Every structure is written in C-alpha cells, then in structure tokens.
C-alpha cells in the first residue's frame, strides 16, 4: 500500500514541477514570474499572514465568555 502512496505523491510532485516550469505563449513560466520579483511576493505573504492572525485573534476575543 505504501508503494501506491509513494507513486501517487511522486506523480503529483512531477505534475506540479511540470506545471510551474511550463512555458506560456509569451515565453515565461510561473516560476520565472515568481523569481523575477520575490520581494513583492514576500510582502503579499506577510500581509496575508498578518491579516489572518488578526482575524483569528478577533474571532477568539469575540467568542470568549464574559
């Protein structure tokens, strides 16, 4: 059974790598786009994480018994 799981995970990883490195009509790939401007991706990720943490804190505080 483990060999089947290993094969499925391997196939999924191979498909993912193929998908992000596949060239589009303009000659670029998703990976190229990501590597061209990493600071903006990091800023977007930090903003998303901060907003998510604030939402969780707010929900936690709203649901506290008084």
Please, could you describe this protein's structure?
- The protein is mainly α and 66 residues long.
- It has a domain at 25-66.
- It contains three helices and no strands.
- The mean pLDDT is 90.
- This is YtxH-like protein.
- Unreliable stretches: none
What portion of residues is helical? over 70%
Q: What value does the Rg take, in angstroms? A: 20 Å
Oligomer: single chain
List the keywords.
79% helix, mainly alpha, single chain, 66 residues
Topology of helices and strands:
Blueprint: H1 2-21, H2 30-36, H3 38-62
Short description:
This protein is mainly alpha-helical.
């Amino acid at each position: 059974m483990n060999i089947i799981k290993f094969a499925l995970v391997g196939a999924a990883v191979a498909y993912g790598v193929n998908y992000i490195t596949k060239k589009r009509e303009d000659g670029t790939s998703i990976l190229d786009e990501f590597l061209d401007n990493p600071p903006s991706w990091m800023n977007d990720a930090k903003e998303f994480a901060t907003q998510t943490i604030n939402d969780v804190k707010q929900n936690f505080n709203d649901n506290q018994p008084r």
